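Hi support team,

I've been running sequence recovery on a batch of backbones for a student project. Most finish fine, but this one hangs at about 90% for roughly twenty minutes before it completes. I'm not sure whether the input is malformed or the queue is just slow. I've pasted the structure tokens below so you can try to reproduce it. Let me know if you need the job ID as well.

Thanks,
M.K.
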């Protein structure tokens, strides 16, 4: 097989695995939604298995794209959308082995599908990186950063569910939805556990990014818009964890702060690139 033919074959395989991932994430989300809406408790493990298979095929798409482009597949907006979904799903699958977070499955699936939809709507061409940016620090930095964002997304989901459950309990609406949602204590515990995972990952992601910047641009920190907003996001979650550990913030305040923190994550991911630009802007 000649190099052009091999390249076309790699693109075709990448597209096939990407579509399979979309189908599996959609199927897993439907299984979790059915378990959430109806008394089909036996569907929860199947939803997790479908997600696991989807995560595997998703990982294969990155390996194929890495081989095709001979660089870490995280240079374009298409790849970053896909990486965000991958990090979210990976953290969820790891966390569910230690915590009872299956109830978040429907929310996780919807968020992952939204990210993959963003990947579908953005250019899929491989963007060549300048030689100065072709470093092993790139995949390390990106994997840590997006895994941290995935944990914060789970905290966001738990925060939203906490506010919904609290509202129904205060208004004495003890319907099917209220009975299927975890207790406020469990949701608060999930929120806290996700924060304790996401904050170290974000911290190490920022540190590895600074080290990479030192090799690439000659400076650890340049106050680029994305660097600045990453630091702001770090401060928000640092303040939340500090308040939880010292003052004992729990419940509603912690849920609202987790939601606001994830808003900062999304702005750092998308808003900075479209509104502020800088060295970290995605190329098209």
């Amino acid at each position: 097989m000649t190099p052009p033919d091999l390249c076309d074959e790699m693109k075709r395989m990448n597209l096939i695995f990407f579509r399979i991932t979309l189908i599996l994430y959609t199927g897993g989300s439907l299984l979790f939604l059915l378990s959430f809406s109806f008394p089909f408790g036996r569907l929860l493990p199947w939803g997790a298995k479908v997600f696991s298979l989807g995560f595997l095929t998703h990982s294969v798409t990155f390996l194929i794209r890495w081989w095709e482009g001979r660089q870490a597949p995280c240079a374009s907006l298409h790849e970053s959308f896909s990486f965000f979904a991958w990090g979210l799903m990976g953290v969820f699958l790891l966390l569910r082995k230690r915590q009872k977070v299956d109830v978040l499955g429907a929310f996780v699936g919807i968020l992952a599908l939204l990210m993959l939809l963003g990947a579908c709507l953005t250019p899929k061409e491989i963007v060549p990186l300048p030689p100065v940016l072709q470093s092993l620090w790139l995949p390390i930095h990106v994997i840590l950063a997006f895994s941290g964002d995935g944990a914060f997304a789970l905290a966001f989901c738990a925060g939203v569910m906490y506010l919904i459950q609290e509202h129904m309990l205060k208004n004495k609406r003890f319907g099917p939805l209220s009975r299927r949602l975890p207790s406020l204590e469990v949701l608060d515990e999930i929120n806290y556990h996700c924060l304790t995972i996401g904050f170290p990952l974000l911290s190490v992601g920022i540190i590895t990014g600074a080290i990479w910047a030192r090799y690439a641009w000659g400076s650890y920190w340049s106050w680029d818009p994305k660097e600045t907003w990453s630091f702001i996001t770090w401060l928000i979650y640092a303040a939340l964890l500090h308040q939880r550990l010292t003052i004992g913030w729990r419940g509603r305040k912690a849920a609202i702060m987790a939601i606001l923190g994830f808003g900062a994550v999304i702005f750092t991911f998308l808003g900075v690139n479209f509104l502020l630009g800088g060295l970290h802007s995605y190329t098209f």
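--
Follow-up from support: It reproduced on our side and the slowdown came from queue contention, not your input. The mean pLDDT is 83. No action needed from you.
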